[in-house]
From TrEMBL:
Biased composition (Acidic residues): 42-52
Region of interest: Disordered: 27-52
InterPro entries: Bact_solute-bd_prot1 (IPR050490), SBP (IPR006059)
PANTHER family for the chain: ABC TRANSPORTER SUBSTRATE-BINDING PROTEIN YESO-RELATED, ARABINOSE-BINDING PROTEIN-RELATED
Keyword set, alphabetical order: Signal
Name of the protein: Carbohydrate ABC transporter substrate-binding protein, CUT1 family
Signal peptide range: 1-20
Keyword Zinc part of the UniProt annotation: no
Keyword Signal listed: yes
Amino acid sequence: MKKKLLLLLMLLVTSILIIACNGDEDTVGEDSEGTDNGSGEESNDEGSASEEEVEIRFAWWGNTERDKKYNEILDLYEEQNPNVTIIREPSTWNDYWPKLSTQVAGGNAPDIFGLHLLLYGNEYFTKDVIEPLDSYVDQGLVSLEGWDQSVLDAGTYNGDLLALAKGVTIQALITNKSKIEGLGLDAPPAEISYEDFKDYAATAAEALPDGEYVTVDPTLIGEHGIEMWVRQQGGSLLTPDGSALGFEKEHLTEYWQYWAEMREMGAVPPANISAEQAGVPEESTLFAQGKQLFQDRPTNQAKMFADLLGDAELAITRYPVMEDGEFRGGEQLQVPAIVMSQNSDVKEEAAKLLSFFVNDLEATKIYSAENGLPGTEPVRENLEGSLHPMDQKAVEHMNLVTEDIPKTTIRPEGAVQITELYQSYSEQVAFEQMTIDEAVDAFFEEAATILGQ
């Protein structure tokens, strides 16, 4: 298992890093008293009690279940460091990024905050708001012992180490196998083409009662779906330099048409229900309530849904493959990471906490691969035998997916404005406020203006 995890992680993250390195490219905490706390320094309650009182702001995205893990880890750190008080700033995914953008623009970023490298890496790496970690490594405040170099490279920009990964994951369809079989149907295979998935959805939709659906409408929950669709055809969301869209009008037309047909057959919820679902906590989603067969999410979230659904047997189905595409799959590997603000007034203490979060064996066991496969071998070894069954399935899924996808690329600056624009026009199509052709033309025209063409 150890070798399999290590080889898999090396394979996964190596593909990420062509662009993550862009310009250039904690002794692990022991689970014992008075020993290494994950920052490379020894700590005990007596020594910490006499130190200066410190407040550290820590922000992350997630849900109530993830919040519990964060709080348990941060409580543990406060117990070991009585002089430290951690101000916790959790948000849902949808609320997190606008809030963080506002804080950064106002010079009021949290001392430590989460950063999704695929989606927002370049957006923040180029804003000169993240504190490089190299000097704290040199001081022994941040430990890199046992870290895979490829994972470190993912958080490196212009030669500076800016971020440490909390895990590596990938988008998929979390599948309620028990509910499907309860309809008298067989669960789909681990891989299924777009056309076969549409046929399967039509059959399943007929078997479901009113108010229940086959899957989520990906056009209304973000840009992962369209990005995978164009990557399968040799394109990309944006060109590498961010100067233009990386796909053609016909790609977007065909994608929106595919999901309009799924909407018309009742396989996905009507636009108003999808819009309502976009902002609810995970426990309030149709999938978590047992009213949907598939949920479009990163594989690391499968265990959360397994816990929410109780006795239901879940599986992981690959996002539909494109048999006649340049690549069968278009998935992007995702690297949620943790960074420190350049404006922090408590940088040394923040560095210690950051290192503790990703290195300490007790802390990482609490976190339990919440964001995917850990990037450090000692942590992976410590988790062996304790991984959630759905995390085991996630490992198998990644083995399958990484065989036929294009290299993962970190999106260039400007991607956030384009994804927001895409979402706006997706909503207008779903609510039938514009035809697909009208929306495609308007999207391409406005995108060209944003990108400075």
